[in-house]
Amino acid sequence: MSRWTFDDIPDLTGRRAVVTGANSGIGLVEARELARHGADVVMAVRNMESGEKGADRIRATGVPGSVTVEELDLASQDSVRRFADRVEGPLDLLLNNAGVMMPPRYRETEDGFELQFGTNHLGHFALTGRLLPQLLAAEAPRVTTVSSIAHHNGDGAVCEGNPREGYDPQTSYGRSKLANLLFATELQRRAAAAGSHLTSTAAHPGISSTNLIASKDGLGAIPVVGTVMQLVSKVVFPGAEKGAEAEVYAATVAEPGSYTGPTGFQETRGAVGEARRSSLAQDETLARLLWERSEELTGVTISVEGR
């Protein structure tokens, strides 16, 4: 099989997509490539000014699909609700891409959740649930949730939501990414059991040199560390173009329930293919418990019913 590239994306004319965190980095590439193949893309971003600049960059390439920008702060359940209320009509694709990585000190969302768990998992869990009516109104809806090779650092305490006591940036990030993978897998499991036409997939980008490393919500909270890490990553790791490949593949053509990532050195880079899951990521009981806990914390009940 030849290496999959963006040129292998099928025609998406008439399809409507939402990409979270699409103002820069991998999310911006994802939005561009979906629009390049005809999709009408909603860039769901926290920073509207940055989002509009990103949208202008995409439009300047002459893509056939439309590109619009909407405000969404995944660290706010109220913002998630307001965004979902603004999305009208069928939605073909939801790409849960945005994330926060390893803030050095414990931080909380406005709802009182640890920042990584609240943003990376609970924000996307609630967003998916609130957009389900629009998704199920589409002919062949797909939800792709972005995990990470760091999910292997997650542990069985994932349902505890990263409590303040004993906070560790790396473990807490790993738990949030384990939660992403458990959610994506459980969503597909429930969709299949309900006879729904919804497809859920997961993906990870390997290690890419993007603004996520220097973000003030993550490692960039310590300026020197964020700057040094970003400089090093630019030399050692591929950029957003390569990092986005696995996620776009998962969002457009991957099999239901699949987990896609780079297949090169320790899954940090290389051609797109099947990614490895930790034993915990395959634990159906843990996935169910996390689902139930997430419904309790967000107040969003997800029932996957469809044609």
Question: What does it look like?
Answer:
This protein is an alpha/beta fold. The protein has one domain (7-298): NAD(P)-binding Rossmann-like Domain (Rossmann fold, 3-Layer(aba) Sandwich), CATH 3.40.50. It is 40% helix and 12% strand. It is built from 9 helices and 8 strands. The protein has helices at residues 25-36, 48-59, 77-86, 115-136, 169-193, 223-236, 240-243, 245-252, 284-298; strands at 16-20, 40-45, 67-71, 93-96, 142-146, 199-203, 259-262, 272-274. It has an 8-stranded mixed beta sheet with strand order 3-2-1-4-5-6-7-8, sandwiched between helices. Helix 4 (115-136) links the parallel strand 4 and strand 5 (142-146). The longest helix is centred in the middle third of the chain and has 25 residues, at 169-193.
